[in-house]
Specification:
This protein has helices spanning about 35-50, 60-65, 70-85, 105-115, 120, 125-135, 150-155, 165, 170-180, 190-210, 250-260, 275-290, 290-305, 310-335, 340-365, and strands at about 20-30, 55-60, 95-100. With about 375 residues, it is mainly α.
Length: about 375
């Protein structure tokens, strides 16, 4: 290994398998995947797996920031792996692994934290939001009221606490990305700030050690508009913490019950009136799962005030089931095959560690951590 100033910079495009660009994505092991995960990411990942060197992982280390039950964490990891595979991710085409199976990530996380400031971490929107919830601090009414959140967190006198892992979450995410020299990282709007921090940490590392080692990953543009899958509660997007999800593992009875309980309004009072948010959300779901003529039928019925929400929900449930039931069957089949799951993650960990070990060796060398 050469001296730090002479360490060759890896090319930042085409460094993946067969000269392909590298795409990286992970999901926290905090529960089952839902329809939002599927249409927002998974089905797009399936389309990408022939054209890119894709590396997908289950982020069990990230999940520790919310103190999951150890037994549940282990089961959640296996659930998400099964759901990844059932959705169509091919372990022969993709590197699929569990974050903690690559110990190089944890060591590089420690090293990278030496170049990350406490202040910039405390100012991240996701940390402030999660810290408020953990400590019971009300959200500010305006941006100007947000300046004192750091003092409130530090000066908190309750028995509640904010763990350091939550604070350094962006560093771990940056390491997940940089250790693979990923070109693209598909992230939603809530993770864009973390991706920008990853680029900042890469620039800082390169500048401090005077070597252009890390490239700057960018968000992946799928070439179509971003899909925001709404929940069933009448507002916002589908999310686990909101309790408004349709899970890929939901059985037929559960799914129908959820859809039939979806929030609606009192119905249109006059022809061609503006569609309310709850009904617009149901139409958005229908755009994803139903045929165009079915969607058009119910939109026309709303416009002429003849719509019956019971009929709308029954049709929507039927169309969602056509998508999810085949996936559910595959999930149950894969989930019951522990030997297959173990083989997939062992294979994925071997591939991931080969790349991660090389990056970690370079980083240690660059930072001056060398054998005497």
């Amino acid at each position: 290994m050469s001296d730090n100033n002479n360490t060759p910079a890896p090319e930042q495009t085409g460094k993946g398998k067969d000269g392909k660009k590298i795409v990286l994505s992970g999901i926290r092991a905090t529960g089952n995947l839902h329809l939002g995960n599927y249409y927002g990411a998974l089905n797009k990942f399936v389309r990408m797996q022939d054209d890119y060197d894709c590396r997908y992982f289950v982020a069990d280390l990230h999940a520790l920031t919310t103190h999951p039950d150890p037994k549940m964490l282990h089961e959640n990891v296996k659930d998400i792996l099964a759901e990844y595979l059932a959705a169509g991710l091919d372990p022969e085409k993709n590197t699929i692994y569990v974050q903690s199976d690559v110990p190089e990530i944890s060591e590089m996380y420690l090293l990278m934290n030496m170049h990350v400031g406490i202040g910039e971490l405390m100012r991240t929107a996701s940390f402030k939001d999660k810290a408020r919830k953990a400590l019971g601090i009300s959200a500010p009414e305006s941006d100007s009221d947000d300046d004192g959140i750091e003092k409130q967190i530090i000066g908190n006198q309750t028995n509640q606490r904010v763990n350091a892992g939550l604070l350094t979450y962006p560093t771990l995410m940056a390491v997940d990305i940089l250790i693979h020299h990923a070109d693209f990282v598909p992230v939603g709007k809530d993770q864009e700030q973390h991706l920008e921090l990853t680029r900042r940490f890469a620039r800082r590392f390169n500048s401090f050690y005077k070597t252009p080692y890390f490239g700057e990953p960018v968000n992946f543009n799928f070439g179509d508009h971003s899909i925001k899958v709404p929940g069933l509660d009448g507002s916002g997007k589908m999310g686990k913490s909101e309790g408004n999800c349709i899970y890929l593992i939901d059985d037929e009875k559960t799914l129908r019950k959820k859809v039939m309980r979806a929030v609606t309004d009192e119905g249109p009072k006059e022809p061609n009136q503006e569609v309310s948010e709850p009904i617009r959300n149901l139409f958005t779901l229908m755009e994803l799962v139903s045929t165009p003529d079915t969607l058009e039928h119910f939109k026309n019925a709303y416009a002429d005030c003849s719509i019956r929400y019971g009929d709308l929900k029954k049709q929507l449930a039927e169309d969602i089931l056509k998508v999810t039931l085949p996936i559910r069957e595959r999930i149950l089949d894969i989930r019951s095959n522990e030997e297959y799951l173990s083989r997939v993650v062992r294979q994925g960990a071997e591939r991931a560690r080969e790349v991660a070990a090389e990056t970690l060796r370079d980083v240690r060398q660059i930072m001056g951590i060398r054998k005497i």
